[in-house]
C-alpha cells in the first residue's frame, strides 16, 4: 500500500468501523429496534459481536502483513481497529449497566434535561448493589469484565507518548494481553448463551486460527534465527 494512500484509507476504515454503530442508531430512530422481540438482548449481542469482530480484525493485521513486505503499512491500522474494539466493548458493557441492571434511563434523562446531572450518580448508586451481586454470582460477567479492563488498559496506553513513557519492552508486554482479552471475550460469549447454543463456535474458530498463526510464526522465526546463528558460527 502506497504511503500517500494511508490517510484516505484511514478515513475509509473509520467509516467502516462506525457503520455498525450507525446501523444501531438507525434501528433505534426508525423504530425497527422497538419492534424487535427483545431489543435489549439484540443490542447486547450486537455490540458484543462487533467488539469481538473488530478485535479479531486488529489481531489479523500482524499475520497478514507478514505475508508480504508490500503489506507492511497495514500495521498503521492495528491501533485504530483495537480502539474500535474497545468502543464496542464499552457499548456492550453499557447495555448491562444502563439497560439490564435496573438503571432508570428515563428518570436520568429527565433529570439531565432539568439540569440535575447528579441524578445519574443517584441512579448508579441505586443499582450498584445489584450490579455487584451479579458480578460476584455470574462467571460470564466476571470474565467479560476482565476482557473489558484489559482493553481499557490497552486503549489508555495506545498513544505514542505512552509507549515512550513506558518503554518499548514494557509496552509490548502489556499489549500482548490483547490475546488474553480475546480469549476472555470468547469465554464470555460461551458462558453467556444458553446451554446447547453453539453460535460462539465461529468466533472461537477465528480466534484459534489467529492464535495458531502467531504460534507458527514464532516457531518458524526462532528456527530461522537459530539457523542464522549456526551459519555465522560455522
UniProtKB/TrEMBL annotation:
Signal peptide bounds: none
Stretches assigned to the Ferric oxidoreductase domain: 48-186
GO cellular component: plasma membrane
Alphabetized GO MF terms: electron transfer activity; FMN binding; heme binding; metal ion binding; oxidoreductase activity, acting on diphenols and related substances as donors
InterPro entries: Fe3_Rdtase_TM_dom, MsrQ-like
Domain of life of the organism encoding this protein: Bacteria
Record keywords: Cell membrane, Electron transport, Flavoprotein, FMN, Heme, Iron, Membrane, Metal-binding, Transmembrane, Transmembrane helix, Transport
Membrane-crossing segments per the record: 12-30, 50-68, 80-99, 140-162, 174-192, 204-220
Pfam families: Ferric_reduct
GO biological process per UniProt: protein repair
Entry annotated with the keyword Hydrolase: no
Chief place of localization: membrane
HAMAP family assigned: MsrQ
Protein name: Protein-methionine-sulfoxide reductase heme-binding subunit MsrQ
Organism: Granulicella sibirica
